[in-house]
Amino acid sequence: MKKRIIAVGAGAILTTAIIVSTIFSDPPVEDVVLEHTEFDSQLAHQEMVSISEAVMKALADYEIIGDVQINYQESISITTSEDQSIAEEMQNEILQALNSEELSSVTRVDAYDILIRSEVYEK
After folding, report:
1. 113 phi/psi in degrees, rounded to 5
2. Which domain of life is it from (predicted)?
């Protein structure tokens, strides 16, 4: 009988502890709703192809254009053997190409940073 009283007492204490902790616990956290923007990889690919073509066309008059790397809606990096003093001129050509009617369908064209790096290539 003594064991039974201890078991019932322990159960009562445990039940009381659960009820008290529930009452005094922090209020429930509201669900956080994150906006999810759907990413259309085909559209991104087409935009990058269009930008690549426009950049190559804009820089066609320059001697040697090496790598052209485009990070979607972030940056356009160009490696060239042209003298660094021509970099500003090249940037202006690229900006004109990005703001042309030809690329009017490209979203966030103003988000691109244009980086031009000069390297000496061996012939």
Report:
1. -90, 140
2. Bacteria
Separation between Cα atoms, residue 94 and residue 114, nearest integer Å: 8
- For residue 116, what are the CA distances in angstroms to 79, 101, 110? 6, 24, 17
**6-33 per-position pLDDT tens digit:** 655 656 666 666 665 666 666 655 666 5
Whole-number Å distance between alpha carbons of 58 and 66: 14
- Contact call for residues 47 and 71 (beta carbons, < 8 A): no
Domain 41-118 grouped into CATH 3.30.300: yes
**Does the predicted model carry a pTM greater than 0.70?**
no
